[in-house]
């Protein structure tokens, strides 16, 4: 209802919960899944990030958070405006490097978003 999804407590290096409670999904899978999701694309103004919600085959609700060209460009612009020395990303090899036209366009947009 309020788009609040609690992670199970999976302690990791002192943090009460971590990415060990979830899993990483390739960008191509996310882009295909968002269109058939329960919620459609949602935007969190605090995190400046998109997310969506879906139910799996047994009816359990899941939430998927990710970056897209818009969210990355906002973060890159923030880094530049503060005079910081750079920006990092979690995993660039999760982009879709197939030769499909849509995939090439999405991947190019993601890389271009790193330069504000």
Automatic annotation (TrEMBL):
Q: Which GO terms describe its molecular function?
A: chitinase activity
ATP-binding among keywords: no
Cellular component terms (Gene Ontology): extracellular space
InterPro entries per the UniProt record, alphabetical: Chitinase_insertion_sf (IPR029070), GH (IPR017853), GH18_Domain-Containing (IPR051887), Glyco_hydro18_cat (IPR001223)
Q: Which GO terms describe its biological process?
A: chitin catabolic process; oligosaccharide catabolic process
Protein name (record): DIAC acetylchitobiase
Recorded hits in PANTHER family, A to Z, give: DI-N-ACETYLCHITOBIASE (PTHR46290)
Q: Which Pfam families match?
A: Glyco_hydro_18 (PF00704)
Domain GH18 residues, every copy: 1-116
